[in-house]
Design goal:
The chain is an alpha/beta fold and 438 residues long. It has two domains: 2-57 and 377-434, Roll (Urease, subunit C, domain 1), CATH 2.30.40.10; 60-372, Metal-dependent hydrolases (TIM Barrel). Helix content is 38%, strand content 22%. Helix 4 (129-142) packs parallel to helix 5 (168-184) and helix 12 crosses helix 14 (357-372). It is globular and about 65 Å long.
Amino acid sequence: MTRVRATILAAPRPDELQVREDHVISFDDAGMITAVEPAEAAGGPVDLELPGTTVLLPGLIDLHVHAPQWPQLGTGLDLPLDRWLFDYTFPLEARFGDLGFAERVWESLLPGLLSRGTTTAVYYASTHEPATLALAEACVRHGQRAFVGRVAMDHPQGTPHFYRDRDASEAVAASARSIDAIEALGSPLVRPIVTPRFVPACTDALLEGLGELADATGALVQTHCSESDWEHQYVLDRYGVTDAVALERFGLARPHSVLAHAGHLADDDTDRLASIGAGIAHCPLSNLYFGNAVFPVRRALSRGLRVGLGSDIAGGSEAGLLPQCAHAVNVSRALTDGVDARLGPGRRGVDGSAIDILTAFWLATVGGAEVLGIPAGRIDPGHAFDALAIDIGPESGVEVWPEVDDWSRIFEKVVRGAAPTNITHVWVAGRRVGPWRS
């Protein structure tokens, strides 16, 4: 049994800030929390006592990371989505046939995300089986909780000739081998995930085969859904139905499927996905660049749809989820108020769409855990001790003024203002996984 003493800040519900000053968290050898008690009641020694100028938060759950795009983070974002993919992204991802290059990227990516407090990540790898397995092995080695998927894509019009699966049968077979290889690692933290890139990149035979693979293996599914005007319209033109309907028909919209972006969902799509038990990876920053719309978080939650946050590296130009919390608030305000001053106030926005930083942080923790169906996102008994410690002391750069700041203000400052250099400890399943600074 290990015991950590700290002040805990968390959002167990979208509208609740939970503050537990000077508590002791006990967790077992498997990293599962067994007790969270006030220090005066817990008694006995502790293994680690965090300074009073440090707060402990639940680990952050990033639902949408394109791992091979790490080297292009922050580039090419002036282009529309289809050109960004063909001019920048597909040529880069094709390089991951070079296993040495892939391993170098993974050895930069994993510490980079862990140092930002990303304790769980849902990864798109590339089409290459060795690179995909190497990513899963890197997650095991660095101790990150992860879902790792070999990207499947075979459509001759939706993919470049130099970067696609040969045909649907080979793509399904390669994905099945990848699932077996990741499961053979025997890690309780790292799992495979079925990964059709998105409908424009996949033939019907591939989508059908991957749905059958998900059904046969029980692996979760991730893909893109109603991401942009272009992608949303493409599916309507090809099938006469929306992404949500098409994905369900192919067996890919399933319980705990991770559907990225979804800014163009109609209410009946939202209700359909909620009834299935699928979830949305809301990527607020990349949606500004490529989505042509703002995902209506508050409306989706009110209709019972599971929602978490994603960075969408590299369509989102900032790694880590604390910045995405701020972006989620910002885009919700834009949706509420509108952006075109030529329209009257009553026509300019969608009233009631704004969320606050507390809801955004809930998305990054509890919301993401609910999408995936994992016991994480909370610092409570029965959940994994996935957590990060953040320095808010006088030299931290997080401006705390005791005369005016209560815990709700401090929490907002931490989520909006803490940089990676403020993060002093990160744990996954009770094991410290970084950051490792000299």
